[in-house]
Write a structure and sequence with these properties.
Elements: E1 8-12, H1 17-22, E2 26-29, H2 33-46, E3 50-54, H3 55-60, H4 63-71, E4 76-80, H5 89-104
Parallel strand pairs: 1-2, 1-3, 3-4
Length: about 120
């Protein structure tokens, strides 16, 4: 079986899908975490790019599954924030550093080291 080329696939609620589609991103819609789980399991078996999952869906997955997805190299599975509240600069920085660490494989430090 030939695998598809690497791509970005978003797992999102239907109300957010049009915006991603307008940006040219592949979209899989899910109405709830259970439906998202089925989509993510299928995508992890089929994709070799990046699977981005609506954070509230991902947070509802079992902790052991989230940990396995976080360790996934192919595809890389990341959450995209719900956008319901503005994150503090520290939270945004921590999220970006976490994504970089997952993608690069080691911790990246910007500026001075924190104690």
């Amino acid at each position: 079986m030939t695998r598809a080329a690497a791509r970005l696939v978003i797992v999102t609620p239907p109300e957010l899908a049009p915006g991603f589609r307008l940006a040219g991103v592949s979209v899989v819609t899910a109405h709830d975490p259970d439906e998202a789980l089925g989509a993510v399991e299928r995508l992890v078996a089929e994709e070799k790019g990046v699977v981005s999952v609506y954070a509230p869906f991902l947070e509802a997955f079992a902790p052991d599954l989230r940990e396995r997805l976080e360790r996934s190299v192919t595809p890389v599975v990341v959450a995209f924030p719900a956008g319901v509240a503005a994150a503090s600069p520290e939270e945004r920085r921590a999220r970006i550093l976490g994504l970089l660490q997952q993608a690069v494989g080691y911790q990246v430090t910007f500026g001075e080291r924190e104690p």
